[in-house]
Amino acid sequence: MKKVFNFSGGRTSAYMVLKYWKEGDLVIFCDTTREHPKTYKFLNDFEAFENIPIIRLMYNGGWDGFLKHWNNGKSIPNRFKRQCTIELKVKTARRYLRSLGIMQYENFIGFRFDEPLRVSKHKEQWKKVVTKFPLFEDKITKYIILDFFKKKPYDLEIPSILGNCDLCFMKGKNAIISILASYPELADKWIADEEIETNIFRHTYFPNITIRQLREYAQNNLFKDYDLTEIKPAFNCACTT
């Protein structure tokens, strides 16, 4: 059975590929186009140093898959309507595999041993797809992976909280405020989303507050010295896909 590795662009999924990948297996990165620039650098470094090819996909092949998707759906996503993960990552990968005639495969996801809730909440979506959580099964934790990359000639050069979509609403308002205190420029594209959207549908990523307001709050308060390496997302997400 074909093995498919879901590469999120972070250390955990990279470690999973390095530990379990064999020649002929597929490694897929689904690009939401909202990743931090250092995530793309990490992907490039991984390919260059490890000589393992990464298949890079985008929703409908668009230059901004994130923006294209919510325009099609006439609504930007939020914590209660999370169509972004399923469309931009899960279904995008699925469509690609089907285009190759691959209907039955083992789907490798990088949930670690210290993330049991993410494993327990996973639900299979297709009958001929078997999901594997090898890091969980082998009791691999975050600290094992961090130590592993200290010995590598390359690394992800950003705190983990900046992985996946850089200002994803699943990280929570407090995390977003802390991020914007150090990286206010990351808000620009998310503000543009809401200001296009609010003119028509009055939708925002968080209830009753805009990303612009969160950035203003971050810049006017004492968040600049907060250690981003200590921040964790407020809500569970499946975006290691």
Describe it for me?
This protein has ten helices and five strands, in the order βαβαβααβαβααααα. It has 241 residues and is of the alpha/beta class. The protein folds into two domains: 2-161, HUPs (Rossmann fold, 3-Layer(aba) Sandwich); 163-230, no CATH class. The longest helix is centred in the middle third of the chain and has 17 residues, at 83-99.
Give a short summary of the structure:
This protein is an alpha/beta fold and 241 residues long. It has helices at 11-20, 37-50, 65-73, 83-99, 116-120, 134-137, 142-150, 173-182, 187-198, 211-220, and strands spanning 2-6, 26-31, 55-58, 105-108, 129-132.
What is the fold's blueprint, element by element?
Elements: E1 2-6, H1 11-20, E2 26-31, H2 37-50, E3 55-58, H3 65-73, H4 83-99, E4 105-108, H5 116-120, E5 129-132, H6 134-137, H7 142-150, H8 173-182, H9 187-198, H10 211-220
Parallel strand pairs: 1-2, 1-4, 2-3, 4-5
Helix pairs in contact: 8-10
Please tell me how large the radius of gyration is. 18 Å
- In quaternary terms, these chains amount to single chain
How many distinct beta strands? Answer: 5
Order of helices and strands: EHEHEHHEHEHHHHH
Mean pLDDT: 86
- Spatial ordering of strands, largest sheet: 3-2-1-4-5
Principal-axis shape equals globular
Secondary-structure-based class equals: alpha/beta
State the CATH superfamily name of the largest domain. Answer: HUPs
**Residue fraction in strands:** 5-15%
Tally of domains = 2
Uncertain stretches of 5 or more adjacent residues: none
Q: In CATH's first tier, which class of the largest domain applies?
A: Alpha Beta
Helix content: 40-55%
Largest sheet: 5 strands, parallel
Ends distance: 19 Å
CATH topology of the largest domain: Rossmann fold
